[in-house]
Design a protein that fits this description.
The protein is of the alpha+beta class and about 160 residues long. It contains five helices and four strands. Strands 2-3-1-4 form a four-stranded antiparallel β-sheet, with helices on one face.
Length: about 160
């Protein structure tokens, strides 16, 4: 038997429970045909680069498989028939990656970064600047703004 990495994208309208049921069904098909599922990772709902069948987001799921080619053909056939599956990709690999996949490491890295930042408040909070006092609404220097007669300038443009 060969080792495979299989990723499929499910519609954004499908619930997490429906995606998990689909994953469980695919697992049972693979195990029924003599294969095994080494690891399953649900990556969550992610934005797509472009629309697929009117979907801008999709549920991503990874399966690390040790299965015969017939089992791979069968799960791909089932995914083609399932309306919830937008896309799938199966790649034959030499060995499975130990630990979490790159997508899961990225999520953990982002979570750690947010924890290190701590409570900094709103990102756009500029409370440290203090009161800036009265400022003219016109961005030009005061001398230039005072020299221009606005009604005359508008009348000359017409």
């Amino acid at each position: 038997m060969s080792l495979y990495e299989h990723v499929y994208l499910a519609r954004q309208d499908a619930s997490v429970q429906q995606v998990e049921e689909l994953t469980a069904h695919l697992k049972s098909v693979i195990e029924g045909m003599g294969g095994s599922v080494a690891k399953t990772e649900y990556w969550g709902v992610k934005s797509l680069s472009y629309r697929l069948r009117k979907n801008r987001k999709a549920h991503f799921t990874l399966l690390n498989l040790d299965a015969p080619a017939a089992a791979i053909n069968e799960i791909e056939r089932l995914e083609r028939l399932n309306e919830d599956v937008l896309r799938y990709l199966t790649i034959r690999v030499e060995g499975h990656e130990e630990g979490p996949s790159a997508m899961m490491r990225r999520v953990e890295r982002d979570r750690d970064r947010d924890d290190r930042r701590g409570d900094r408040g709103d990102r756009f909070d500029r409370g440290d600047r203090g009161d800036r006092g009265d400022r003219p609404r016109d961005r030009r220097p005061r001398e230039v703004a005072d020299e221009i007669d606005v009604p005359t300038a508008l009348a000359s443009e017409e």
